[in-house]
Amino acid sequence: MANNNQQFKKRVDQLDRQHKALANGYYTTIRNDGLIIAHPRRRDTGLPIKYLLVLAVMFFLFKALALSAAGAGTYQSRVNSLSDGNLVERAGAWLLQIDPVTQAVSNTIGLALHHGTARL
Asked: What is the distance of C-alpha 89 from the center of its chain?
């Protein structure tokens, strides 16, 4: 008798797990015998690479705009003053240092921004 109760509890627990899984969305398939089976949808648990890539591009664009607006000397002096600070400021200085990508994008932005201005 106790064995029957354990088997019944196992079946009920299995049905509860299936019900919770199907509550988050499902798709159906039809077997060869015509029985319709519901399968739970998988959740994408991976990090969205597309969003991380967009974030990185936006960060480099921000750095290039700041470098183009402030000028190389002023920008570098501000980064140097950050590198003398606490741990967070030093990490920010390391991230904001001038790299080849930032320099190239800054040069392009500088040419585009200053193209229409009169030069003396």
From this structure: 23
* Same domain flag for 30 and 67: no
Amino acid at 55: L
Render pLDDT for 71-83 as a digit per residue (tens, 0 to 9).
Answer: 889 999 999 999 9
The pTM of the whole model exceeds 0.70: no
Q: How many residues does the chain have?
A: 120
| Alpha carbon distance 57, 52 (integer Å) | 9
Same domain flag for 64 and 104: yes
Per-residue burial over 31-61, b if 16 or more Cβ lie within 10 Å, else e, is eeeeeeeeebeeeeeeeeeeeeeeeeeeebe
Start-end of H helices in 1-120:
2-23, 49-70, 72-83, 87-96, 100-114
Residue type (1 letter), 32: N
Crossing angle of the two packed helices 87-96 and 49-70, in degrees rounded to 10 = 90
Residue 22 neighbours by CB distance under 10 Å: 13
Residue 104 sits in which domain range?
49-114
